[in-house]
Write a structure and sequence with these properties.
By secondary structure, the protein is mainly beta. It is about 5% helix and about 50% strand. The protein contains two helices and 16 strands. Strand 10 and strand 11 form a beta hairpin. The chain is elongated and about 75 Å long.
């Protein structure tokens, strides 16, 4: 850390972490599609009691927290960052952080024993849970005296969700990528912000303004998501968002 690679570079850092995690007796809400499938195949009350029907139409599937058996997941996190030496025009710092999900497997008790389900690259929707196989954030900053400007670029990989039984009752199945699944497209968001901390005010005051989702990237529709038709755990509210802040430090 902080070693000079060449004359213009003030510091360089590379970090990599591999994880292999096993969770026994995990508790979480089951996938709505899995609950419906198990109800049809087994007719067991533990599944069917969570399915509400009006005639032949499924109107509600409750995602009650259950002991699902276990979770196994592996992945790789890595990041690269550097900062330039201070010049008359200021300095630049860059951080590129990435997360790769190799595997995310859930183990549940089925009528014929333990059932394993791979979740990587899928969206469960209810409750909203997306298992991105690749997520990347590139942050570029420029600093000079009292000023700092930052651009944050966020990439999220595509996901696949189940469509069968989720939108058919509304006559919207044809909007899905296939008769049974839908592809939630990969997205790329850019946020920018500028901060002025005037030194003639003892550095206590700071004035900040910025725009989230600068290029008004469309938030991908999630047909299986139970709130607002998009996964709010991954994606921002649709549209660009402008903000301004004034801060004062007592330290």
């Amino acid at each position: 850390d902080g070693s000079e690679v060449f004359s213009g570079l003030g510091g360089f850092t590379f970090e990599i972490n591999y994880y292999d995690i096993t969770v026994d007796n995990a508790i979480q809400a089951p996938d709505a599609g899995d609950v419906l499938t198990q109800c049809v195949q087994t007719l067991q009350p533990i599944y069917c009691d969570n399915v509400t029907r009006v005639g032949a139409t499924v109107t509600r599937i409750d995602g009650v927290l259950l002991n699902i058996g276990g979770i196994e997941t592996t992945g790789l996190d890595w990041s690269v960052s550097f900062v330039t030496n201070e010049q008359d025009w200021g300095s630049i710092d860059v951080t590129w952080a990435n997360t790769h999900l190799f595997d995310y497997t859930e183990f549940t008790e089925g009528p014929d024993g333990v059932v394993s389900t791979s979740r990587e690259g899928t969206e469960l929707g209810s409750p909203e849970r997306g298992y991105l196989e690749w997520r990347s954030t590139l942050t570029i900053g420029w600093s000079n005296n009292d000023w700092r400007v930052t651009a944050i670029n966020r990439y999220m990989d595509s996901l696949t969700e189940q469509c069968t039984g989720l939108v058919a009752d509304f006559g919207l199945t044809d909007l899905c990528s296939t008769p049974t699944t839908n592809k939630i497209d990969a997205t790329f968001y850019t946020d920018v912000q500028a901060t002025w901390t005037p030194s003639n005010l003892d550095g206590r005051w700071s004035f900040q303004a910025g725009i989230q989702n600068l290029f008004d990237e469309d938030t991908p529709i999630c047909y299986s998501c139970d709130l607002n038709s998009f996964d709010g755990t991954l994606h921002p509210i649709p549209g660009s968002f402008w903000f301004a802040r004034v801060g004062y430090s007592l330290d």
